[in-house]
Amino acid sequence: MKRFGLQSIKFDNPITILETASIVGPKEAQGPMADYFDKCLEDEFWEEKTWEKAESKIIKETTNMSIMKAGLSPTQINYCFAGDLLNQCISSSFGLRELGIPLYGIFGACSTFVEGMQLASIFIDGGAADKCICTASSHFCSAEKQFRFPLELGNQRPPTSQWTVTGAGAAVLSKSGNGPYVTYITTGKVVDMGIKDANNMGAAMAPAALDTLIAHFKDTGRKPSYYDAILTGDLGYIGKDILTDMSMSKGFNIKSNYNDCGVLIFDKNVQDTHSGGSGCACCATIFSGYVFNKLKQKGLKKVLLIATGALTNSTSAQQGESIPGIAHAISVETDI
Q1: Domain stop point among 174, 192, 216
Q2: Helix count (H) and strand count (E) of the chain?
Q3: Which of 55, 65, 152, 329 has the maximal Cβ count within 10 Å?
Q4: pTM score of the predicted model
């Protein structure tokens, strides 16, 4: 059996991450991770007429870049798993419509990138594919327009709010290669603690991250100390503190090796990003840039990446619904 415990799968023949690529916007280019991204844009439009068109261009170019970096052509990729935050995932479908690769459009909110890596790994391990690409994008301006308020209103953001990352990340996965490798996946469950504040996504998603973290350790028998780094997708500063405290109360001490991609991508004091970064591109760009670089250089050898998502939309928020959270995890290792 490849299934471990209640929510995890072990790959006896681990899946290779051949190459990654990342493109980010101008605010991300001013942050502490700038040197790890493949391309930093000078403006949010990137010569397009709308923010939505710009986001489609970002995911298109990031996907093509990752395939090129892997020394492949699109015809050698069997499936593409892609998603974003806009209604009906139009950034992905419009941006990738000329790619010519069979496409699975997926939605896990900000957990979409890791959800795609999980599905691609299963396809490859099961023999349905030899090579797949996983990609996800978000855009601050398009996300604010859809989920909150038009930028022209100049609404004041509360301290708990996060800044949606403008950018995209992509990863090419393969049946064979020299690593880093996806060794385990742990698929999350929907967890809803009744939080309704759309400006406090970290608090809404932290319980789901806790649920998946505990499931991973129980299913695999590993402890937090097994990993060089445990990274959540976009809990931000507030969600990170909540997860750290809740994990400790459940007997899992993650303080020494835990961080969050939403904390890493911005300097909140200099850039006025309040509780940090968020969005599909938050986890996708940090992994495709910083984390993958560290794995290739063996600065990190064992990483648990838990991508977090808030499964809400503008309609549910207007109807007073709470914000369900979900979190998907992959274990990435350099030595097997």
Answers
A1: 174
A2: 12, 14
A3: 55
A4: 0.96
